[in-house]
UniProtKB/TrEMBL annotation:
Functional description taken from the UniProt entry: Produces ATP from ADP in the presence of a proton gradient across the membrane. The V-type beta chain is a regulatory subunit.
Gene that this polypeptide is encoded by: atpB
Designated name of the protein: V-type ATP synthase beta chain
Source organism (scientific name): Criibacterium bergeronii
Stored InterPro entries: ATP-synt_VA_C (IPR055190), ATPase_a/bsu_AS (IPR020003), ATPase_F1/V1/A1_a/bsu_N (IPR004100), ATPase_F1/V1/A1_a/bsu_nucl-bd (IPR000194), P-loop_NTPase (IPR027417), V-ATPase_su_B/beta (IPR022879)
Record-annotated ATPase F1/V1/A1 complex alpha/beta subunit nucleotide-binding domain positions: 131-349
Span of domain ATPase F1/V1/A1 complex alpha/beta subunit N-terminal: 8-74
NCBIfam families per the UniProt record, alphabetical: PRK04196.1
Length: 459
């Protein structure tokens, strides 16, 4: 029977101070019983001798210092997991919020997970088809990878996230594929958009959703991605499913981390964020991957909005250190009506070479990708020269590259949020665009591929 304490000393915002506690551990769950019998949940943030600082999961309204009592439950936060989670929507603490029944768990797992032994990791090398050409063709996502999307305020990252969640699949296998979607600090309107999008397309049947709204407590936001990753680990390593985890928005998560750190009066680091934010983000991101001896895997796409569109801000900066590349969305492309507005030149997938080629996508993929990058970069330079010097100053070949750049953005990058392209369609479209250029310009493609796939445009 847990001990009950009537030694609450102070309540300060989301924090509560309890003295004279025994055998209480960091991160342990607690329960506060009010004078009227209502109960509130909390967890231990700090232990100093016999004094404990606890973080409330709900409002502190109604807590009477003299009459309220606290009991500690002897365990950290857990999530009850079962295959029945697929197709369900939960709040940030794992409670059903879709009107359905409680899950009957097959087991209960600590939401902090168990660190994956580096020696037990398997190398990511299987292609995941998202149906988005700018990702599949140029910044390929590989099973077990962590590939974040760097966005900015006002850009349609929610539409892109929903599109990837609906369309993603592992090709050439009969293995089950699931999506775990965690939304942190989003508005009710965004939550409704995601739920409706998945429900209308039937993608909800293979999706587990965790939704934390903007008006929910900050401490719940800290738990939401860990709830999602715990569900993903169960599906991947217990049920041997391929799991794609989408976390949006990491910026809201980091702001909650800063809020709680400030409430604890910790010494702030860069821009007021706690000095341990790198470690905290790594404990989430590094839960993705593949394990030797398991057919299941966890692939992760964290989405974050860069404050002031600044890549050097601590959140994108630290995320970039931990993950394997980034997909960057562009304000300029969005203003031109390009959807999704993926800026392919600064975007990068560090593992793309491992997931493409013969037997994975197609033999010409690597060469085509390199040639498209080179041609688009030169086309952008030609357009910049055209602005400064005028069209008459450009050579005939520069004009062809400028034309290529425009068509590349309008046809290859801009495909809308409903088009689901196979990798073959993406590669064929790339060859069609390269037909704008003369054969002599295709210096990054093997002659045998040029003979097989190249068809020059009739100008």
């Amino acid at each position: 029977m847990p001990k009950e304490y009537r030694t609450i000393q102070e309540v300060a915002g989301p924090l509560m101070f309890v003295k004279d506690v025994e055998d209480v551990a960091y991160d342990e769950l607690g329960e506060i019983e009010l004078a009227n019998g209502d109960k509130k949940r909390c967890k231990v943030l700090e232990i100093n001798g016999t004094n404990a600082v606890v973080q409330l999961f709900e409002s502190s309204t109604g807590i009477n210092l003299a009459e309220s009592k606290v009991r500690f439950l002897g365990r950290s936060m857990e999530l009850g997991v079962s295959k029945d989670m697929l197709g369900r929507v939960f709040d940030g603490l794992g409670r059903p919020k879709d009107g359905g029944p409680e899950i009957l768990p097959e087991k209960r797992l600590d939401i902090n997970g168990v660190p994956m032994n580096p020696a037990a990791r398997d190398y990511p090398q299987e292609f995941i088809q998202t149906g988005v050409s700018a990702i599949d063709g140029l910044n390929t996502l590989v099973r077990g990878q962590k590939l974040p999307i760097f966005s900015a305020s006002g850009l349609p990252h929610a539409n892109l996230a929903a599109q990837i969640a609906r369309q993603a699949q592992v090709r050439g296998t009969n293995e089950q594929f699931a999506v775990v979607f965690a939304a942190m600090g989003i508005t009710f309107e965004e939550a409704h958009f995601f739920t409706e999008s998945f429900t209308q397309t039937g993608a909800i049947d293979r999706t587990v959703m965790f939704v934390n709204l903007a008006n929910d407590p900050a401490v719940e936001r800290i738990s939401t991605p860990r709830m999602a990753l715990t569900a993903a680990e169960y599906l991947a390593f217990d049920l041997n499913m391929h799991v794609l985890v989408i976390l949006t928005d990491i910026t809201n998560y980091a702001d909650s981390l800063r809020e709680i750190s400030a409430a604890r009066k910790e010494v702030p680091g860069r821009r007021g964020y706690p000095g341990y934010m790198y470690t905290d983000l790594a404990t989430m991101y590094e839960r993705a991957g593949r394990k030797k001896g398991h057919t299941g895997s966890i692939t992760m796409i964290p989405i974050l909005t860069m404050p002031e569109n600044d890549k050097t801000h601590p959140i994108p900066d630290l995320t970039g250190y931990i993950t394997e590349g980034q997909i960057i969305l562009s304000n300029d492309l969005y203003r031109q009506g390009i959807t999704p507005p993926v800026d392919v030149l600064p975007s990068l997938s560090r593992l793309k070479d491992k997931g493409i080629g013969k037997g994975k996508t197609r033999k010409d993929h690597a060469d085509t990708m390199n040639q498209l990058f080179a041609a688009y970069a030169r086309g952008k330079e030609a357009k910049e020269l055209m602005v400064v010097l005028g069209e008459a100053a450009l050579t005939e070949i520069d004009l062809l590259y400028a034309k290529f750049s425009d068509e590349f953005e309008q046809r290859y990058v801009s495909q809308g949020y409903e088009t689901n392209r196979t990798i073959e369609e993406t590669l064929d479209l790339g060859w069609d665009l390269l037909g704008i250029l003369p054969k002599s310009e295709l210096k990054r493609i093997k002659d045998e591929y040029i003979e097989e796939f190249y068809k020059p445009r009739q100008n």
